Amino acid sequence: MNRRDFLKTAGLAGAACAVPATAITACNEVNKNVNIFNINRLGKGSLKLSYEPYELKLRHTFTVASYSRTTTPDVQLRLEYDGFTGYGEASMPPYLGQSVESVCNFLSRVDLSAFRDPFCIEDILEYVDSLSPGDTAAKAAIDIALHDLVGNMMGQPLYRIFGLNPEKAPATSFTIGIDSPEVVREKTLEALGKYRILKVKVGLDSDREMIETIRSVTDLPLVVDANQGWKDREKALDMLFWLHEQGVQMAEQPMPKERLDDIAWLSERSPIPIFADESIQRLSDVKRISGAFNGINIKLMKCTGLNEARKMIAYARAEGMKVMMGCMTETSCAVSAAAQLSPAVDFADLDGNLLISNDPFEGVLVENGMLRLSGRPGLGLRRIR
What we know:
The protein is α/β, with parallel strands linked by helices. Helices cover 35% and strands 19% of the residues.
């Protein structure tokens, strides 16, 4: 079976133009108080798109191997249809190479007036994707809003529409960026009692000091992300064995993304799984890197949204790879979108909304370190600003 046929038979092509009658019956039975949209008739008018820039303010300076920042540029998006609204978001950390200007320029070219049925998700997103070869964050904003819209119209949370059990949502890691021992200790203490696993940014000469500082405070399980920071594979392998001794469970992107042969060499010898981050963006990348990594980290801002993320999960599973759902620094809009798929993955790193001080939404919650998905329709959002 070729890759295209596999994806068709995997049943993960997203919500199609027709939704099974059983799904609608379930919608009416579960949320009787929700105004359910009748998908057997078209709404009045067409899809209306609006958007505005929104700067995310970080609670702490965020430092990784290649840069530091205190804010993240962001664009908030609304998609309206027949009295229903879906929310989306484009978040743009520096390494994505996208900006508020580029996102707004892309969105200004999107004309959804030809689409009379928002349930034709595949057709709509195929058109959006055809407008440029890049602009993944802008495309993700539309994808997220479209899924939220459809979920709100059906009166059901997306995880239910996807057929996933929210009780299987994993613990999310909490990220500790590269910093001085004093600040690392402070951040670690803040996380105690709230999270079950910590994600530590490494990739500089201070790696051992970072881990030792955290270990002086807690013995919680750790994962690490080198963000391509290690350049020598022999030294990287030594570090991986040492990290394993420190209770680290997996490592993300240990070396530069173009050095797949060196990463494959590491993956064959490492005592812990090696996950791709910068080496992977979209579905086409999964096959390309499958022999070099043990798993992949899927981020909606890189893969254009939920529709493609579902296909990536299916393909990675077929390749025998583990899967993590990750995020950028984002509001609860995009983080709650990624969380809808969390019951289908092995690891979750969905704390981007917890790193900012001006989140306009309430959505997925973290209780005792575990993701708790809202039962509200769509993304499960409630606007608080």
